[in-house]
Design goal:
With 201 residues, the chain is mainly alpha-helical. The protein has 11 helices and 4 strands. The N terminus is likely disordered.
Length: 201
């Protein structure tokens, strides 16, 4: 439904209107909807993955456990569940940059990254990440030196990946919580790097 200027209403207004209709028709239970929203806002999502990364940056023993047995190490922080049963963490270094794709569909580690972004599920990303990973990274604004090896990991229903980004310079004095605030979803997929404090995401 258009407003007086002929423009479509904002997406938030559309969602609210749809929610209201579904509730009024008895198709959606508001309490269940609130529980789902709370789950994805506070219990799963990129903030969980960011905490895993920050812990690995600040605790060498945890980092080793994470790289040796990601599923168990991630579970230590309470992040388990559907789509996160079998995890592998791959570490970015100055010499190697990792990125993740699912070439068949959109397998994705929900407990640590939440819902996959639209571009992750798109056919162009799924094919081009394998055929031209450097080109895809450039489109995300990440230009890597030629000497850096790019490794592409294909997530499946049996195994999902999380990238452990390089810790940015100038963060030695930051707490684990402050470090986690720097980590983005895109950096944990491998299409971005983590910037220093104050850098735009």
């Amino acid at each position: 439904m258009a407003n007086q200027d002929g423009d479509a209403p904002p997406i938030a207004a559309r969602v609210k209107a749809l929610e209201q209709v579904l509730v009024e028709k008895g198709l959606v239970d508001p309490a269940t909807l609130d529980l789902l929203i709370d789950t994805y806002e506070t219990k799963v999502g990129p903030r969980n993955g960011a905490r895993v990364v920050a812990r690995a940056w600040t605790d060498p023993d945890y980092r080793r456990r994470l790289l040796d047995d990601a599923t168990s190490a991630i579970a230590e922080l309470g992040y388990t569940g559907r789509q996160g049963e079998h995890m592998l963490v791959v570490e970015n270094t100055p010499a190697v940059h990792n990125m993740v794709v699912c070439t068949l569909c959109s397998c994705y580690p929900w407990p640590v990254l939440g819902l996959p972004p639209v571009w992750y599920k798109s056919a162009p990303y799924r094919s081009r990440a394998v055929l031209d990973p450097r080109g895809v990274l450039r489109e995300f604004g990440l230009e890597l030196p030629e000497e850096v090896e790019v490794r592409v990991w294909d997530s499946t229903a049996e195994l999902r990946y999380l990238v452990l980004p390089e810790r940015p310079a100038g963060t030695d004095g930051l707490s684990e919580e402050e470090l986690a605030a720097l980590v983005t979803r895109d950096a944990m997929i491998g299409v971005a790097r983590v910037g220093p404090p104050g850098a735009r995401p």
